[in-house]
Write a structure and sequence with these properties.
By secondary structure, the chain is an alpha+beta fold. Among the domains are: 297 residues, von Willebrand factor, type A domain (Rossmann fold); 191 residues, no CATH class; 239 residues, no CATH class. It has 14 helices and 61 strands. Helix 3 packs parallel to helix 9, helix 5 runs parallel beside helix 6 and helix 6 packs parallel to helix 8. It is globular and about 105 Å long. The chain starts with 56 loop residues before the first strand and ends in a 17-residue tail after the last strand.
């Protein structure tokens, strides 16, 4: 049962579409829950821990200074476009004159009309686009708003025209109803000398809605000049012809595009509103968004907690819900902002910090004073500006050169931490924008609330504070954010003084540096947006950084069972909200885990034209997508996307993402002020599986693919799209309003060379993503092709097992039964059509169903499913004779596969359960669900066959709050030829967790002292109660592992506390065949090499919380235990493990 993996080249073909394929078909293995198509158990579409996330506060501050109404934004690379004379002189740009060629070309004026861009109106609160102002004859003339009086662009007094004559002298005339723009002849040129020469431009003039005239600059002659009524003979523009710029079919379409630009993008503030309106439309209702302008005009301000608990949505009255128009109101205030006066950024940022210090009922921690004020709510301010701040400063002193208070978390965890004045934060100046940002970052803004704010690598503060993001629209400072941060961090350069040379009304370049400095001090990010697209991308990146949260419910994998310098540990994770994922490799150094990954698979996805992506067409392997799959990928709901574009998006193309001018969901992440692609989907329920033969690691992701990565580099080798996923849901993956769905979320296993000599077979399941299993031949990953796709089984109509295939989430296994075949054994999982627990046995080579064995338990009113299967070779001849499995109704089943003919295989024990897990309640009992695979072992002293398993489930929203008592069991298989009774709970010996405490900084527990079982006992159970007898909802949803006679198993405790949605859990270690604690601790928590001194309450430590949230299945290497958890972190501990353990195939924790 050890896992293998492969390494395969991945190449994709989007354009060669073959044959046809129907929807479902999937793969192998088993895990336990999923998403139903027909009744059964209702599973959420989001991971469970994300459902109670506290919405963050986002305060967007728009610059409403006078310069925002300007219709010019200089390109610092091309400050003037001119025709040089023999004396070298030229016409110099003048920002106050609209009529010069520099201003009328998007090259010199980055907000001016660019015919290569398709402009859209502003976005409505609903996500639709405005419709007015797009006609050439009726555009909005207002410099700030897209409303009010319209003008006709064909009117003779609607604009001016500016040209340069042969002598370099400006010549201004009335446009006569003509709109003019200039485009470089070589639009791809980046040469500033080329772009600075007027001779290298075409001039386009919209004469009316049906005619566009193009001219070139040259020597004027009577014969070749343009129509003199439009271009006087004194101007040097010749060879005019009627033509439209490249990219648009006719003059009418160009005129409509120009009109849209004029109404919605013509000035800085209009462009900023267009970007903000579009980016914020992609935010869901699970954040709280406020609005202010830097002048804080009272008629525009909106607090983050404005109605509806501040959530960024409109909600109609329903039941007790209050009708609100929070989203509509926000958009109305944004679009009504008007630019005038100066740029008082310091007071605007200081006002934001004071707002986030408010403890009142209407404050940002509400909605109610003291009651629902969440201590973990995060505060973010996004400050936008087009210029250099001015006006009076705010007196805060030199905050970044002064140490801050060191704060502690609840119960002293985490350890005291605070700001210590250091580079790149500190400087020698006071009362700067950076000082204000530092003040509200390093200070606990709500000292009466617990310090439990989530932290990240970019922001380690766990007290209530404000994070500052800065976006400069065009203005540049003396420093370069792309290159100077390392030098500032090293101390080789320092921050400039933002007060130097300020006379009261002049522009100071150092004040743009100060805005960047404020973003560094505020632990946010900064972007200098040279054009509207960059502004939109930067704002989108800021919101992505705010809404993302890294989590993991995937078990860790390793390259070795021994911990040495060459060992790599693999951990999968995902970022909620963005729904992107990653698989990272960490090296083991001197028995410690590196905190820096060796590689990140998200960075190793090849370009879409170089990937190898395969699928199943219904009868054989094929390149992705097939014709049928392609047809299903078309999306007609807004924004409508063609099938080909969606297929390209799934394959990794970013061409049509919003950041690149398209309408498809962005997939990128910002780290250390660098934006990089993040094309790997979220990995939730699929644990990484490693192949030592080919040095390849595999994982399924909710981007619709199984991925194969080179274990040495993290580069993707190939990908596989199971045909059984829901392609209609996959078509929505590119939607900006994408709501999470599961696709390839199940376990992955690999055959050993003993099971399949000279060949390695990978089997995967969809988990919550669908019903079924698939198999791939990954013997030679580098040459993987469509012909290596072996089969898919997904219970399609007509298949014998169609009504019995559920959501396979538990690990299946490969074995040789007694009929001479090599088989795949699968527990059917929940939500099959029959809602019963069924064992499925497939031929590994062909995928043919060998046998399905139903327990006949379960119904639509009491839905059931087999949770996980484990094989047992009873006579030691190398074949599997029995299979043990639990189900959701608490039954433990034994399946008899000992016969030489599969038709004789059946449910053993006269088709009765060996045991049913229940907990006494009053005069009755409640069922204890079994969610994971059994662990089967032979007692070396008595030679009894023992089964070890825990109970509990974590699948539905209701499971979070379930506090019913669950148990850990060790039972003896008492079935034999003469007895078919179901073992009673009373036949087992009760054991207990007896003490809790702390050791070496970890919460720990101890089991009752080591003792043998009394005579006649058929096993033991431990009720998962916190001493003395408190039910906290602790449960076990992963399989146990046996190391010699030590049983190791993870337990989890979910929480409804929105500030602790990761929950907690324990790694438990006890004597397997007695159910009691060991004679000395299994854990060496103080890493001193002495296990005898790790005690709690005088007992050996038998249970430890390693601080990873809810732990998954541990990976055990020689002397070291490594575990992942719902908090997205890795935990590890030294253990008393001396034998060389094989890799136990892992089950993913079932965390929706």
């Amino acid at each position: 049962m050890n896992a293998l993996h492969l390494r395969i080249s991945i190449r994709q073909r989007l354009h060669a579409i073959r044959a046809a394929i129907r929807l479902p078909a999937l793969a192998i293995l088993v895990m336990l829950l999923s998403l139903p198509a027909n009744a059964g158990i209702t599973l959420p579409t989001d991971p469970l821990t994300t459902s109670s996330r506290v919405p963050p506060n986002i305060l967007f501050i728009l610059d409403d200074s006078g310069s925002m109404a300007f219709n010019y934004l200089a390109n610092p690379q091309v400050t003037q476009i001119c025709r040089r004379n023999t004396n070298g002189s030229c016409q110099v740009s003048n920002n106050s004159v609209l009529n010069d060629i520099t201003n009328l070309s998007y090259i010199g004026n980055t907000i001016y009309y660019n015919p290569a861009t398709t402009y859209t109106p502003w976005t409505n609160p609903s996500g639709s686009l405005m419709t007015a102002g797009t006609s050439y004859g009726a555009v909005f003339g207002d410099f700030n708003k897209a409303s009010g009086t319209t003008i006709n662009l064909a009117d003779t007094n609607s604009c001016g025209k500016f040209d340069v004559n042969n002598n370099g002298t400006p010549n201004t005339t009335v446009c006569g109803g003509i709109q003019t723009f200039y485009v470089p002849k070589d639009v791809n040129s980046n040469n500033t000398g080329y772009l600075g020469n007027v001779s290298n431009y075409y001039r386009y003039q919209l004469l009316n809605e049906t005619t566009i005239q193009r001219g070139e600059f040259g020597v004027v002659t009577t014969a070749n000049r343009c129509d003199s009524s439009q271009a006087p003979a004194s101007l040097g523009w010749i060879n005019c012809v009627s033509v439209t710029p490249t990219g648009r079919s006719n003059a009418a379409a160009e005129a409509a595009n120009y009109a849209t630009w004029f109404s919605y993008h013509r000035t800085r503030i209009k462009s900023a509103k267009a970007g903000a309106g579009k980016v914020f439309s992609d935010l869901g209702g699970d954040v709280r968004v406020g609005f202010r302008t830097i002048w804080s005009r009272n008629n525009l301000d909106i607090p983050v907690a404005d109605g509806n608990q501040g959530l960024f949505m409109d909600r109609a009255a329903s039941g007790t819900a209050t009708a609100t128009t929070a989203r509509t109101t926000w958009y109305t205030r944004l679009y009504n902002a008007v630019g005038y006066n100066g740029t008082p950024l310091p007071s605007a940022l200081d006002g934001a910090g004071k707002y986030f210090s408010d403890s009142s009922a209407s404050g940002p921690y509400g909605p109610e004073s003291g009651v629902d004020q969440y201590a973990c709510r995060q505060n973010f301010t996004i400050l936008t500006t087009d210029g250099y701040w001015n006006g009076s400063s705010v007196s805060v002193g030199n905050q970044d050169n002064t140490d801050g208070t060191h704060y502690s978390g609840p119960n002293g965890t985490p350890a005291p931490y605070g700001y210590t004045a250091s580079a790149p934060y500190k400087d020698g100046y006071s009362n700067s924008l950076a000082d204000i940002a530092m003040r509200y970052w390093k200070t606990d803004l709500r000292d009466t609330l617990d310090n439990v704010v989530p932290t990240s690598g970019a922001d380690p503060a766990f007290w209530q504070h404000m994070v500052t993001f800065g976006i400069s629209i065009g203005a540049r400072g003396t420093l370069d954010p792309a290159t100077d941060l390392p030098r500032l961090t090293a101390g080789t350069i320092g921050w400039p003084d933002p007060q130097t040379g300020y006379t009261g009304n002049n522009d100071i370049l150092e004040r743009v540096d100060d805005l960047w400095h404020a973003s560094v001090n505020g632990h946010g990010s900064f972007l200098n947006a040279a054009d509207p697209d960059a502004f939109k991308t930067g704002l989108s990146a800021a919101l992505s950084a705010i809404t993302r949260r890294t989590s993991s419910f995937s078990n860790v994998s390793a390259t070795s069972t021994s911990l040495d310098a060459g060992t790599l540990v693999f951990q999968a994770s995902y970022v909620s909200g963005l729904w992107i994922g990653d698989l990272k490799a960490y090296s083991a150094v001197d028995a410690n885990m590196s905190s820096t990954p060796s590689w990140s698979a998200s960075a190793g996805i090849p370009s879409s034209d170089k990937r190898k992506i395969f699928t199943w067409n219904g009868t054989a392997g094929a390149s992705f997508p097939t014709a049928t799959q392609l047809a299903s990928l078309a999306r007609t709901t807004a924004p409508a996307i063609s099938a080909a574009d969606n297929a390209a998006y799934v394959a990794g193309s970013t061409d049509n993402e919003i950041r690149n001018g398209g309408a498809m969901r962005n997939r990128f992440i910002e780290q250390d002020s660098v934006i990089r692609d993040a094309l790997l989907g979220d990995i939730v329920g699929s644990s990484p599986a490693y192949s030592s033969d080919t040095k390849t690691v595999y994982a399924g992701a909710n981007d619709g693919m199984l991925h194969a990565f080179d274990a040495a580099t993290g580069v993707e080798q190939f990908a596989y799209v199971p045909s059984a996923i829901n392609f209609s849901d996959l078509a929505n993956l590119s939607s900006p309003k994408y709501s999470h769905r599961y696709f390839v979320d199940g376990p992955v296993i690999l055959s050993t060379r003993t099971q399949t000599p000279s060949k390695t077979i990978l089997v995967g399941a969809l988990g919550k993503g669908g019903k079924g299993v698939y198999a791939l031949d990954v013997t030679s990953p580098a040459s993987f092709s469509a012909s290596k796709v072996k089969w898919e089984r997904y219970g399609k109509a007509g298949d014998a097992e169609a009504n019995n295939v559920g959501l396979v989430q538990a690990r299946p296994f490969i074995a040789k039964p007694n009929d001479g075949t090599t088989a795949l054994v699968v527990a059917n999982g929940v939500n099959s059509a029959n809602d019963q627990a069924v064992l499925l046995v497939y031929n590994l080579e062909t995928g043919a169903l060998i046998r399905q064995i139903s327990t006949a338990t379960g119904s639509s009113s009491a839905p059931n499913g087999l949770s996980g299967a484990t094989g047992w070779d009873g006579d030691g001849n190398g074949t599997v004779d029995y299979v043990y499995a639990g189900d959701i109704l608490g039954n433990v089943w034994k399946f008899d596969l000992s016969a030489a003919t599969s038709a004789s295989w059946s449910v053993a024990n006269s088709a009765k359960p060996l045991f049913t897990a229940t907990y006494p309640v009053g005069t009755g009992s409640t069922v204890q669900a079994i969610s994971a695979n059994m662990t089967v072992a032979l007692n070396p002293s008595t030679y009894d066959v023992w089964l070890f398993f825990g109970t509990g489930r974590f699948m539905t929203a209701g499971d979070i709050t379930d506090k019913s008592v669950q148990s850990l069991y060790g039972i003896i298989d008492t079935s034999n030829a003469t007895s078919n009774a179901t073992l009673a709970r009373s036949a087992l010996t009760s054991r207990a967790i007896t003490v809790t405490g702390a050791a070496s900084g970890y919460p720990v527990r101890g089991f009752q002292p080591n003792a043998v079982l009394p005579p006649g006992s058929k096993g033991w159970y431990i009720n998962l109660l916190t001493p003395p007898s408190t039910a906290q909802g602790e449960r076990i949803v992963t399989e146990a592992q046996l190391l010699n006679t030590t049983l190791v198993v993870s337990s989890i405790i979910p929480t409804l506390n929105a500030c602790q949605s990761d929950g907690i859990g324990y790694i438990n270690a006890l004597e397997a065949f007695t159910g009691t604690g060991s004679t000395q601790s299994f854990f060496d928590l103080d890493a001193d090499g002495n296990f005898a001194n790790d005690k709690v309450g005088g007992l050996p430590v038998g249970s430890v919380n390693l601080g990873v949230g809810m732990p998954t299945l541990a990976n055990i290497m020689r002397g070291k235990l490594v575990v992942g958890g719902s908090g997205g972190k890795l935990g590890n501990a030294n253990i008393a493990e001396i034998r060389n353990t094989g890799r136990i195939s892992w089950r993913e924790i079932i965390r929706d």
